[in-house]
């Protein structure tokens, strides 16, 4: 199952993404959801971190405290929120568990359930069948896509945020923990858009300066008619090439669309950009997948 057939490999190479239905069992999905329920029930969010997550450049001009909260989250389990969930004093306006946009960026390292799924034999076999020799896990995210308020993810290439030289060394692994439909904000891709490099790069500003990150280059206004919706069932795994253009729409439905996603880098012969916002740390060097 975790081994790709030649036709699947060819499809991934052509399209820049590939759906593998039934990759995880219902039990594996429920185990991750239950674990997240516990983590959220115990979550502690300091007042200055009660900040909302947005991919809009202009809205990323935030207070220094919340910038640091994001920039130093690479080796931690931290919480990022939807818009409009706090009052001006930072108190929750909606129940905390319904307010979270995502948890990032190191569940794969610190949580036993997420570590065992990430490093599971079937994920390792999948990476081997893609020819990865020395894959390392650079980050992970648990994405909630809450009913009614789950925000839009604007068209992007993951390599804009996870830049390497050469390109083509980053791979997203996106696992649906609930059915993802057109109504609740499934992924959309531009098939074949992974072959012409990266439009923009997010780079880290010198330490202590606001807003903390900036973009080199800009995202083209992608023609929305080029995007193909990719609804999948709970347990499906979607492979995402680091340069394929993808997005997801706002969730206006009554159903959440939870997903666990992590990114691998082929470390052999690759330079991780020292300008990326995310950097390996002494506490958490990027863990090798094959362990
Ligand atoms: O889950 C989403 O809506 C977007 C996820 C994404 O862009 C990614 O995993 O690279
Ligand atoms: Fe992405």
UniProtKB/TrEMBL annotation:
Claim: Metal-binding is one of the keywords in the record: yes
GO molecular function ontology, one term from the record: dioxygenase activity
Signal peptide bounds: none
Listed cofactors: Fe cation
Key words of the record: Dioxygenase, Iron, Metal-binding, Oxidoreductase
InterPro entries: Phytyl_CoA_dOase-like (IPR008775)
Coiled coil location: none
PANTHER family in alphabetical order: PHYTANOYL-COA DIOXYGENASE DOMAIN CONTAINING 1, PHYTANOYL-COA DIOXYGENASE DOMAIN-CONTAINING PROTEIN 1
Family: Belongs to the PhyH family. PHYHD1 subfamily.
Protein's job: 2-oxoglutarate(2OG)-dependent dioxygenase that catalyzes the conversion of 2-oxoglutarate to succinate and CO(2) in an iron-dependent manner. However, does not couple 2OG turnover to the hydroxylation of acyl-coenzyme A derivatives, implying that it is not directly involved in phytanoyl coenzyme-A metabolism. Does not show detectable activity towards fatty acid CoA thioesters.
Name used for this protein in its record: Phytanoyl-CoA dioxygenase domain-containing protein 1
């Amino acid at each position: 199952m975790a081994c790709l057939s030649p036709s699947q490999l060819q499809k991934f190479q052509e399209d820049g993404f590939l759906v593998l239905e039934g990759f995880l069992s219902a039990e594996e999905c429920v185990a991750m959801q239950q674990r997240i329920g516990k983590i959220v029930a115990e979550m502690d969010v300091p007042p200055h971190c009660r900040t909302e997550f947005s991919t809009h450049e202009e809205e990323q001009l935030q207070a220094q405290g919340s910038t640091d909260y994001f920039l130093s989250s690479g080796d931690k389990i931290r919480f990022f929120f939807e818009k409009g969930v706090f009052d001006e004093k930072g108190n929750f306006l909606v129940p905390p568990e319904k307010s979270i946009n995502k948890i990032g960026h190191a569940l794969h390292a610190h949580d036993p359930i997420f570590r065992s799924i990430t490093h599971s034999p079937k994920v390792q076999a999948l990476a081997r069948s893609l020819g990865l020799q020395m894959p390392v896990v650079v980050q992970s995210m648990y994405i909630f896509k809450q009913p009614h308020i789950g925000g839009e993810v604007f068209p992007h290439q993951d390599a804009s945020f996870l830049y390497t030289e050469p390109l083509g060394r980053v791979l997203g692994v996106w696992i649906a923990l609930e059915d993802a439909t057109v109504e609740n904000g499934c992924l959309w891709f531009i098939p074949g858009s992974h072959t012409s490099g990266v439009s923009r790069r997010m780079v880290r500003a010198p330490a202590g300066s606001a807003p903390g990150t900036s973009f080199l280059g800009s995202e083209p206004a992608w023609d929305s008619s080029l995007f193909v919706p990719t609804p999948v069932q709970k347990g499906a795994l979607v492979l995402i090439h680091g340069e394929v253009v993808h997005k997801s729409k706002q969730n206006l439905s009554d159903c959440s669309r939870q997903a666990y996603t992590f990114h691998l880098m082929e470390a052999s012969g690759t330079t991780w950009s020292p300008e990326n916002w995310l950097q390996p740390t002494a506490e958490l060097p990027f863990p090798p997948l094959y362990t």
